[in-house]
Design a protein that fits this description.
Radius of gyration: 19 Å
Low-confidence stretches: none
CATH topology of the largest domain: Rossmann fold
Largest sheet: 5 strands, parallel
CATH superfamily of the largest domain: Aspartate/ornithine carbamoyltransferase
Shape: globular
Number of helices: 11
Distance between the termini: 15 Å
CATH architecture of the largest domain: 3-Layer(aba) Sandwich
Order of helices and strands: HEHEHEHEHEHEEHEHHEHH
Helix content: 25-40%
Strand content: 5-15%
Structural class: alpha/beta
Mean pLDDT: 92
Length: about 300
Amino acid sequence: MDNLSVDHLLGIKFLNKNDLELIFETADNFKEVINRPIKKVPSLRDITIANLFFENSTRTKLSFELAEKRLSADVLNFSSTQSSVKKGESLIDTVNNILSMKVDMIVIRHSNPGAPHLLSKKVNATIINAGDGAHEHPTQALLDCYSMRQEIGDLNNKNILIVGDIIHSRVALSNIFALQLQGANVKVCGPHTLIPKYLKDFGVKVETDLDKALKWCDVANMLRLQNERMSESYFPSIREYKKYYGLTMDRLQNVNKDIVIMHPGPINRGVEITSEVADSNNSIILDQVENGVAIRMAVIYLLAKKNFDR
């Protein structure tokens, strides 16, 4: 099968295992391209892509823009802070005005869960979800899984731990869906207040003791505290959180085995992870960033191929 089963990338929960394999295989080819002296291919020369970011972003926005330019697409960047959205214009009207300029694909990040899904039903363009509220962040999960596979091979029956603020994290949910599609065992770790009750319905195990969880896992994906999404206090203090859930070199050395350490960024150094661990040989954090460009190139290319007969 050389086509995705979906017309948009709205979330991992809409993909199947074949879709993942196709994306990873395509990313392998693009990773080779971006490591050449000439890093561009003419694949999307006649496609126009608009990046609509209604929430702050550094890595994801730059990664998408670079992926689009590496594919030779025409790129429009939109920031809601300088737009008519500030004057009360609706999301659908904003997007339709952009599409009237003959835009083919929309990459959207929005604080409201479901915003990309709404657009996919209401506008005539291919939609890629770059993060919707605390719901999903599909390309982050894809690049995380791709990075894991490079380090530890097939993820079937591997033990993957996600640590931290699970309840506010779109990265956690997308990762859980993607890991389970590949047959991985998933466990989350954090204070009870930061772990949603519904995870048990997904067959995800919960562990509140980080040291026990680290002894179990092959990979630990550390998440930051999403303070911007917290309307109340979920734990006594940052100091307390660091004591029980901060990943330090001492903790890592007590495990007596090599664990792959990941982080989707941005990192709060000294809170969920120390600089010593983040910069250690166990860490593949910068590989994740590099792989993000190849994965996003693959997603954009495959959706364009399916929807525009490339």
